[in-house]
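seq:
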Amino acid sequence: MENIITAGNIPGKIMVVVPCVLTAVGIVHRLKSIPRINKLVNNIKRLDEAYGDVLMAPGSLVILNISESSMQLAEEVKFINWCLTVQPTTAIVAYTRNHKPGVLNYISALGVRAIISQIEPTATFTDLIIKSFSSKSMISSPMIRNILDTRISSELTVCEAQVMGQLFLGYNVSQVAQSLGRNIRTVSAHKRHAMEKLGLQCEKDLHELGCAFSGK
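struct:
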């Protein structure tokens, strides 16, 4: 694995944003055992602290916990959307125990670099992290790949992701248009395109996915 790490694909920093202390320590220990990247690894204990670190380190890779708890999940998705808008050179690796197909489809559609199940072996995790340094398309661990056998048609655009994020908060199209300062027709088009990409057939499907993020 070491020989595929080149100067050209090493990230600016590797940030581990995982709330479980034991899990975070294990990840940091694994990554610090890999030559050439060991000095780049940082453990960030709280998600709200990651915003500033990402701003100061363009081109970083963030290993982000994706929770099963709706409240935490909403904050994690908010962070991914913020990175897309403010620091798009940031690569996100979603590290998760949440195996709900709708949630994984949406995380995938946001353009993360990789999705790795926390249940996969250590060797799988390490291998995929290294591959994520140079991957041009999303990669996933075997367990996640099996769940996402029906993949989204394409990634959401930044505008589509923003609209969906607002809809998941319970706002209607008119309120989203006002909040984002956009035309209602434009917002409606973003909503329609995003639903098509995510394979959502109706408003009920959209509502059920929204509930997964809001806990309502």
